[in-house]
Design goal:
heterodimer, A: about 500 residues, alpha+beta, Hypothetical protein af1432, 3 domains, 5-stranded antiparallel β-sheet, 16 helices, about 50% helix, B: about 550 residues, mainly alpha, about 65% helix, elongated
């Protein structure tokens, strides 16, 4: 509570106090629930670790109930709400959160309700049933069967409900998609305007850039998947601009995963958007040259990081000097061991934002069709190379976090399944233990017919026998099968 | 809830903007305005859980009621919101605690923004990250954004051909073999150490000195890039950076620039003469009067002052020519700590640059002269007396006294010569100070001059203090040779003999006390029973000084 706050018992105080308490206690509850689920999955019930986990779960639940009187855990998209308070994801808890999200989803659960009077035994039964139902095939009635089982077992203080899939939710999904498209289109237009202004020596409208980055941050915070899907729009002709926007989106999304605050995400986003601004001073004939560059041309190209610094100094109307943007522009090709370019005489330690942008930049560039790279490298191969080859100079922890973000098969990857269906990766699996089993959109039938829009399938799903009905066997080129990837995200 | 209640709130908010604009937070008017806003909101929250307004050009509507209307755009909350695209505004309970004041501040800032500013109302609102204020807006400017639409359909092969192609491409199925991936689920988990590593990196990001980082880049480039146009641009950036950094009170960074410039001058290859001259001139420019005066002024006016280390680092880089300006400002600065630092910097420069000391002593600024004189005395600068001679002819009594004090501290032969001349100064205090010092130091060169003062008529109209000073000096300098003359002055004559006045007689007694010989003692003992109490008192004191 801030000093000099309102008199006790007012609405304002209640809102503030409740919010803060729920965020912390809700997080604790999720973590102990995750621990209980994991323990029970690995060990028998009598195991000391399992018993302790159940004790902790009971204590935390009761603590929450003492204050709140009841607990409602609700899933909405990729977010978890405890009594209408959204829980914040950060480095400390994202793995446990996403696992619980996955388990609840697999059980068909949209909400769990717990009220006062719940005992340890009931929580134990709930966790056990949760595990067994999560392993079963998805059916429309799964959650109701689970509810019945709970009731039959005498669990009267814990209830489960299906997700609230209303028309409103579907409409909201569409609205989010349209909002993402608007944000993306506007960001590309603004980037183009700024880069072209700089190239022509005119004053750039930085205000618009700020608005664009703020919109990207908002979109990533509200519905990351819709914006990430648009990074598959790799415009050959407008590469410079779409590339800058894609790097911005990837960087902000990764920053969110690392737990950066909204304003920090904005800093990162601005730096990411401007990371290649130095290319506005590289002659177009060098930038767009087909075939290999001469030594001189390569030297000019390698100058773009520090040219970016000079360019940013010249950006009038920026107000405060964009130091972070300069640092990222300068460092993003330096490599973690500083053997990249430009050379550094004075001691330097790479900024985390530079490392993030380097990974995002490297990934987007390698997976795009360019004048000198007419066949883009498949996303999973790019990630493999970034992850396994230290000579590439990427920070391995950042690469790992990036893979956590986009999955081993990033959004837009075209894959062949063992059912002979062709699919496009729609999003990373929310359960981070299944980074190699994303949610895909099946776009052909097993017989070979192309479908539009196709349907979504979670490759982490198991059937009654405990097997995965579908698995990726190969990454492939979508053009070979007449599939325009971005059409499935637009 | 009646609309009038909402109207009242908005009236209170309007007044609140003005109050927060005109007054500081500790002002009672400001505080009253904020209290009124809070009270109004609390009343509102008794009746509702949120407050949502539709924003028009000149009005705000709540539940279809116009609750605010202001035609004058410069004064209008509605117009400030509307012109940047805001179309609805909502407040929630809790906004009155802290956010409403920030919100009013943002409105005020937005009103004052120029058209080409880097921000507008929306970017400012977003940066505040309000929890209890929300708004919807329309993007006003057409961005030339190309709407994203599906691409052209690529003709695909018939299904059977597709299936065949997929079978060809897919690797053969191997029944019973389990994919290693299904076991390696934790491969991409971030371990605790890795999570910690990332967290620390983020902390480091926000604790680093960004300016220093960028400066480091600029210096690297200056050293490595040999193209003339590139270097010219870099030098221009560095030059323009200096006043910016000074304005931001980042003195350390300015000091770094000046230091690194020296290093670059030594190490950079193919540096053309023009660039070399410019770089060499950077420290000199900062030491010039106008630039340095700006710095001093900003230091004096700053609410927050830099640390001693920061200022010292900068002052280390000042050139000798800065001394005169520093002395001007030493006299003017209000902040004691800053003044001490400036004095320390001036002292360093003065000790190393005698020529600049003389220049500073010749300054047209009287206050600066005075400070330089004091400093010269404190530092005992041997070359300073040369510049002080002229000052002894000044009409400024305070200055002359300071000069005498400084000369006494310096005590060099040239200083002593000047002090000797000061015995004849038109100012009593100057004469006294000079003669006392000369006497205490035993400066016999001045003996003749002092004797003529003592035995002549010049002291006749002097007050006792001055007479005493001269007589004591006479006694100290002339010694036994002066006993006869002093005895004559001390002696009480007979009926027809000339007798000196009691003051002169008392001074003679004190002078004998300074001679300190048995003969002098004898003279004093003989006068011990003098009828005049002033004389008798002086004799007693003198005898004590002589001792046994």
């Amino acid at each position: 509570m801030t000093a000099g706050g309102p008199p006790k018992g007012s609405i304002a105080e209640t809102v503030q106090t409740t919010d803060g308490f729920l965020r912390h206690a809700g997080r604790d509850f999720l973590v102990v629930l995750y621990t209980a689920v994991r323990s029970l999955k690995l060990y028998p019930i009598e195991n000391a670790q399992v018993q302790k986990a159940l004790d902790d779960l009971t204590a935390t639940t009761k603590h929450l109930l003492d204050v709140e009187k009841e607990i409602e855990l609700r899933l909405q998209g990729e977010f978890i709400f405890i009594n209408s308070t959204r829980l914040r994801l950060d480095l400390d808890n994202y793995a446990s959160f996403s696992h619980i999200l996955g388990v609840l989803r697999q059980s068909g659960i949209g909400a769990v309700r717990i009220d006062e009077g719940v005992e340890r035994k009931q929580l134990q039964i709930f966790v056990s049933l949760l595990l067994s139902y999560a392993a079963k095939d998805v059916t429309a009635t799964k959650v109701f069967e689970l509810a019945q089982k709970l009731s039959d077992a005498g669990v009267t203080h814990i209830g489960v409900e299906p997700p609230l899939e209303t028309d409103e939710d579907v409409e909201d999904e569409e609205r989010q998609k349209e909002a993402a498209k608007r944000t993306y289109a506007r960001s590309v237009a603004v980037t183009k305007e700024v880069i072209n202004s700089i190239r022509m020596g005119r004053t750039a409208n930085v205000k618009k850039v700020k608005r664009a980055v703020q919109a990207i941050v908002d979109q990533v915070l509200n519905n990351e998947a819709s914006l990430m899907g648009l990074t598959t729009l790799r415009d050959y002709d407008e590469y410079t601009f779409t590339h800058s926007v894609n790097v911005c989106i990837f960087s902000v999304a990764l920053g969110r995963k690392l737990g950066l605050t909204k304003l920090q995400l904005y800093d990162l986003g601005m730096a990411a958007l401007f990371h290649d601004v130095g290319k506005s001073r590289v002659p177009l004939e060098v930038l767009n040259k087909q075939g290999g560059l001469t030594d001189e041309e390569w030297r000019i190209m390698q100058a773009h990081p520090w040219l970016g610094v000079l360019t940013l100094f010249g950006l009038r109307g920026y107000g405060e000097i964009p130091y972070r943007g300069m640092i990222v522009a300068y460092e993003h090709h330096m490599k973690t061991d500083l053997t990249g370019y430009p050379k550094s005489l004075r001691p330097r330690e790479l900024s985390i934002y530079s490392k993030i942008v380097a990974v995002a930049d490297g990934f987007d560039a390698a997976t795009s069709r360019r004048v000198y790279q007419t066949v883009p490298i498949q996303p999973d191969q790019v990630l493999k190379e970034m992850w396994e080859n230290p000579r590439r100079g990427y920070d391995s922890v950042v690469v790992k976090a990036f893979i956590n973000l986009i999955g081993i098969y990033p959004v837009g990857t075209c894959v062949i399944l063992d059912t002979y269906e062709v699919a496009l990766v729609h999003s990373a699996n929310p359960d981070v233990t299944h980074v190699h089993r994303p949610v895909v959109r099946i776009v052909t039938t097993p017989e070979g017919g192309v479908q539009h829009p196709g349907f979504l399938a979670d490759l982490a799903q198991r059937d009654a026998a405990g097997n995965h009905p579908r698995s990726i066997v190969k990454v492939t080129d979508p053009i070979k099968y007449g599939i325009n990837v971005s059409d499935y995200f637009v | 809830m009646p609309p009038q209640q909402v109207e009242e709130l908005l009236q209170v908010l309007s007044k609140g903007i003005r109050a927060t604009q005109l007054y500081l937070p500790n002002n009672p008017v400001y505080q009253r305005a904020v209290d009124n806003i809070r009270a109004s909101f609390r009343q509102i929250w008794q009746a509702t859980d949120d407050l949502v307004f539709d924003v028009g050009e000149t009005e705000l509507r709540w539940e279809d009621n116009v609750v605010y209307n202001q035609e004058q755009r410069t004064e209008s909350i509605a117009w400030t919101l509307y012109k940047d695209g805001v179309r609805s505004l909502a407040f929630k309970p809790g906004v009155e605690e802290a956010e409403i004041v920030s919100f009013l501040g943002v409105l005020q800032r937005a009103r004052n923004l120029q058209a080409d500013a880097a921000d507008d109302l929306l970017t400012l609102l977003w940066a505040q990250d309000f929890q209890f204020v929300s708004y919807t807006f329309r993007e006003l400017a057409s961005e030339n954004a190309v709407p994203i639409e599906k691409g052209e359909t690529i003709t695909s092969a018939p299904p059977t051909d597709m299936r065949h192609a997929v079978e060809q491409e897919a690797p053969p199925k191997r029944e019973g073999l389990v994919s290693i991936d299904d076991f390696d689920t934790t491969l991409y988990f971030l371990e605790e150490g890795e999570v910690e590593y990332l967290k620390k990196d983020v902390e480091r990001e926000y604790s680093q000195d960004l300016r220093r980082n960028v400066l480091s880049m600029l210096f690297d480039l200056l050293e490595l890039q040999t193209y003339g146009t590139v270097r010219a641009e870099l030098i221009s950036i560095v030059e323009n950076f200096i006043p910016y950094l000074l304005g931001a009170a980042d003195f350390r960074s300015v000091a770094v620039i000046l230091r690194e410039t020296r290093a670059i001058l030594q190490r950079a290859r193919e540096l053309i003469p023009e660039h070399r001259t410019t770089l060499e001139g950077l420290p000199a420019r900062l030491s010039q009067h106008d630039a340095l005066s700006q710095l001093m002024q900003s230091l004096d006016e700053a609410a927050l002052h830099p640390t001693e280390d920061e200022l010292s680092e900068l002052f280390q880089e000042l050139r000798p020519e800065a001394l005169s300006t520093l002395m001007v400002w030493v006299a003017k600065l209000h902040d004691e700590r800053v003044r001490d630092l400036v004095q320390a910097a001036a002292a360093r420069l003065a000790q190393a640059n005698a020529g600049e000391v003389l220049k500073a002593l010749a300054s047209e600024d009287g206050a600066a002269q005075l400070e330089m004189v004091k400093l010269a005395g404190r530092l005992k600068l041997p070359g300073a007396p040369e510049g002080m001679e002229r000052l002894l002819a000044s009409e400024d009594r305070g200055l002359k006294l300071a000069v005498v004090e400084a000369l006494t501290a310096i005590s060099s032969p040239s200083a002593m010569r000047l002090l000797e001349r000061a015995i004849d100064d038109g100012d009593r205090d100057v004469r006294i100070a000079a003669v006392r010092f000369l006497g205490s130091r035993g400066y016999r060169n001045a003996a003749t001059r002092i004797e003529s003062m003592v035995t002549g008529s010049k002291l006749r109209h002097a007050d006792l203090t001055e007479k005493m000073a001269f007589f004591e000096a006479f006694g100290a300098l002339v010694g036994p040779k002066g006993i006869a003359a002093l005895e004559k002055m001390l002696a009480a004559k007979g009926l027809l003999g000339r007798k000196e006045d009691p003051e002169t007689r008392a001074c003679a007694a004190m002078a004998l006390g300074k001679v300190r010989t048995p003969e002098a003692r004898g003279v004093l003992e003989r006068a011990a029973q003098d009828k005049d109490p002033l004389v008798r008192n002086a004799v007693t004191r003198a005898l004590r000084e002589v001792g046994t």
